Amino acid sequence: MSWLVAILGLALLVLIHEAGHFFTARALGMRPRRFYIGFPPAVAKVNRGGIEYGIGAIPLGGYVKIPGMHRPAPSDVDAHFGRAVHEAPELTGSVERMKRRLERGEFTEGVELAALEASVKGVELSPAARRSAERGLNELQDALGGDAYWRAGTWRRIAVIFAGPGTNLVFAVALLAIVFAFGVRVATLNVNEVQAGSPADLAGLRAGDRIVGVDGQHVDEFNEVYEAVQASEGTPVTLAVDRDGRRETIHVTPTHYLGQNWAVGFRPAARWERYSPGEAIALAFGRTWEVTKAIGNGFARLVTPEGREDISSPVGITRVSSQAVDVDFRVYLQLLAFISLSLALLNLLPLLPLDGGHIAFSIVEGLRGRAVGREVYERVSVIGIALVLMLFFIGLSNDLGGRGPG
């Protein structure tokens, strides 16, 4: 059951991301043609109000098809109808007239598109050539329509694209605020459990001890102990502990315990704390900013072997999410909020086909005063797709190899 909850949680994050694009596009006059969770081929689909809603067989995300993402060009006509023209040369006239219309900058449907559609219907084509031609007709109709994305002003295009990650950001803050209002587990300075064979165990730390100082400095919160251990980077740390009213000094050397952050191998006792709505919202914003900075540092460390070991794929994320479900629903909701935040920040990277890449190109086009050719988009997208796939396979390798989250 915990695996099912974890998978549904990830599907929810994709759903709200795509819903952000979908509803913003509709509000700004760009009626989407498709709304999918996952990528085609479709496992299930239904058409409502001229919009196709579906579930794709490839569970790597989702998408909303917004009409006319690119200004149509004669090369688009060649790409879609080249095979059909080869099989049915009588289509040449209609295809060439459509290309000339686009070359003249006449970006309306006109009689040429209607004539091309009629010509395609009247010739014999192989299934592959017909699918390509029909796809070309649909693309031309969308791109030449009045609600085409490329026709919109720069701010409208940016708003539609930013709405996806923006919705994930809002969801993360709202979910964290709800969790803080319900109550969260806060680690204390009391030692609840010492893991056998860990550096803490070998140094003599015991369950029931209370940490009162680190490296000669008094501490009031567990976070101070955690930060001191991380800052040590493996050098010895001196812990001052209260043991049954007596003060003891323990020298312990942190290690990458279980392949994760620096640790000494003990579990602190925890207490539950609830916050007022105002406090919960303030804490949610603060925690979101802290995690955002941490994720930013993580992106910067991707060029290092240690940074690459922190990458996880949907497999690892699902596994960790299912473990969080087993611990407590509030722990799971916190994790879901952080995954939503990570999804937003990843999508804002200035790489095509990610949302950040589309935003960057919209800004460039706004400054240039004219559209960037589709062929440029496609070349840059190849680089972006390659990088995203590389990150996915590194994460998958980490997860299957036992490293990274989980």
Short summary:
The chain has about 400 residues and is an alpha+beta fold.
Helix content: 55-70%
Structural class: alpha+beta
Give the overall pLDDT as a whole number: 84
Low-confidence stretches: 402-406
Number of strand segments: 10
Largest sheet: number of strands, sense, barrel closure:
4 strands, antiparallel
Strand arrangement within the widest β-sheet reads 5-4-6-7
Q: How would you sum up the global shape? A: elongated
Can you describe this structure?
- The protein is α+β, with helices and mostly antiparallel strands and 406 residues long.
- Helix 6 runs antiparallel to helix 13 and helix 11 packs antiparallel against helix 12.
- It is elongated, with a radius of gyration of 28 Å.
Keywords:
406 residues; alpha+beta; two-stranded antiparallel ribbon; 10 strands; 57% helix; disordered C terminus
